[in-house]
Amino acid sequence: MSRLTFSFLRNWVNDQRKVSGNPIRKIENLIRSIEDVKFLGCDSVSVRAEVPEDQRDAVALKVAGFVSEEIGEEEPWAVMSISGETEGMTLPARVDGSVSHREPPKKAPEKTESAPEETPEETEGAAGEAAGDSAEGEGTGEFVQVPRREEEEIESIFDGAPHEEGNAPELDRYGKEAARVLAKLLNETPMRFSPVLADYLKELSGAIGTLRKMGAEDAIWSQNLLISINAGDGLTSFLQAVAEVYASFGLLDAGQDKERQIREIKISGNAGRDHRYEAWDEAVDMAKGFADSNKKSRKRLILCMDISEWQSELGTGAIHEYMREIAEYAKKFILVFRVPYMEVSVRNKISEQIGDTMAVRQIVVPPIAIESMVRFFREGAEKYHCTTGDDCNSYIEQWIMREKSDDSFFGYKTLGKMVDQLVYQKALSNFGQDALDMRICEKDFEKFIGDDEMAENPYEQLEAMIGIAQVKKKIREIVAQIKTQKELYKENKSVKAPAIHMFFTGCPGTGKTTVARILAGIFREEGVLRKGLFYEVKGRDLCGEYIGQTAPKTSGYCRDAYGSVLFIDEAYSLYHEDSPRDYGREAIETLMTEMENHRDDLCVIMAGYTDEMHQLLESNPGFASRVPYEIEFPSYTKEELEEIFWKMMADNFAYDEDVKGAVHDFLGNISDKVMEDKTFSNARMIRNLYERAWGKAAYRYSLSPEEGMVIRKEDILSATEETEFKRLVEDKRRGTIGFRS
Questions:
Q1: Share of the chain above pLDDT 70, in %
Q2: Which residues pair with 262 in a beta bridge?
Q3: What is the pLDDT of residue 272?
Q4: Upper half-sphere CA count for residue 15 (Cβ side, 13 Å)
Q5: What architecture is domain 638-734?
């Protein structure tokens, strides 16, 4: 297989976006549809693919023909180039083959000895499109690795700037140091994974050097920033890098403590009327302190203010006055305003409002792509001398999504914590061994992602589930239908690519999550999905905290799950009939766009209570065409719950015979009314009973280990006396509702 990159002129791409939509997305879909060709990723102006060596010319011609016939470009070779493993390729100069063969246009790849191999990156996704972002000026919509640079290459940034002869020796000295510092910074996180931040540092270095040569040093301090970046995506490290650039030009006093050079504060909102603007008063005082420190010598450089909680009030008179006062002090240091990654229209409005009092430059840092997270993780393990193979990538992805599922993922910090956990676990497995095993393998991830994600045969898992016979049958029918439709789509392009999204409805604990996880594995084995991983979130996780955050956040979860299953539990929570301005509606609209644009490369499964899910389905007519499958999960019978209990028990523990009677009696005392209530948690309840029972046995075993670890009747009886189980069998005349986990 050969790796090829099809690159297109940025101006041409931007023109096409305005006329007929994103051409890169169209070419991506074309690449995905070509048999034996593996799509690797794309950015705003190029598409990467793995192509059989003997098919390179044919695939390149197919792309050029598509650009000509479908997009309408008469001279495709005038706007596209091919790079990568192109040796030996020959193509006609025109798509119709009327001119003799010649080498295709090629773009020389940027490589140095220390440059790492190009890695597939995530596609640009719909985050920018859903938010209305233009690709130009905002990077690629993804994080990609910045090639390592030699100092000599970096020095070219400073070449050609005008200067007076008398200043040349000093400026050359600063230029050399700045080139050395910049080369170092571009190989550090987050700049190495973010072209946006890397490009800004290069621009800043070039501008400072030139302004000094022009004798316009005061303009150096006019570059205030509005940076749109999510928590944990490298803001502090970037600010420290900016400080190093300034220091490399002698603009900071030597020996200053970095913590004193940079200060990050959050301007918190306060609902109390008396102290509403207290945080703004503190911000003004801090700006004054920076200015006072810098009167005699350069000590304070960057004051970063998180204004996320005030973005809807920046245009008010009170905040405008605070901004004006802060701007008066910010003559000899840099002000940075931080907001989360958000929609371009909201961000532009914030920029305009700040711009009323001071000049501000926008920097937009898209969320870290899942492939870049995996690479960062693997490189982190290598720093501990642990090696990870490509076979670990899926386990790393699964673990990352587990960490993200509770909406408390903090980018590089969380990834670093995960690396430390994995290496510590590896040390435990090496303890007492004669030879150290430094290779990370599948079993090293078991503690962090669970056995169920690592099972090899999803069909066997499905068959092993107790009850749900109709669900199993429906799953097999759906898989067969989707496989057939995908095959027809490959053979006949007039057949639309199949939509594989689903609704899972039913009470809690009826197996919806488990079946969705198994289905991801089945889709992977059958070639329906290229990754077949399982990502789980709650409905409200898709909603942002601030205006303009929801669409990028929803698209981000979808982008991570391309090629896999995105399971949205409690999806009905996105719809509130009495709240037309709720962020959930925005999440639904963005979700539907993603579901349509990636209908054959993303399986979205929305799950929840039956009635509420039907209300969600009816809330937007677009769901009907995008979600062709609904599976109803019936509640378990008492007999099935008892069978589930014994399956868990038999797989793990020894038990006395009279335990069976205790469990049977407990279930028998639960009324039908309780079992039929939609909040009754079915298998979740029986699993909790099992865990409480063996927990009590474990405590008894810790006191008397000679008796052995055996589950006894008294363990069951003791567990059922706890409140959450006791209320299930209270006076049936009360109609007590079921246990919620």
A1: 83
A2: 302
A3: 54
A4: 9
A5: Orthogonal Bundle (1.10)
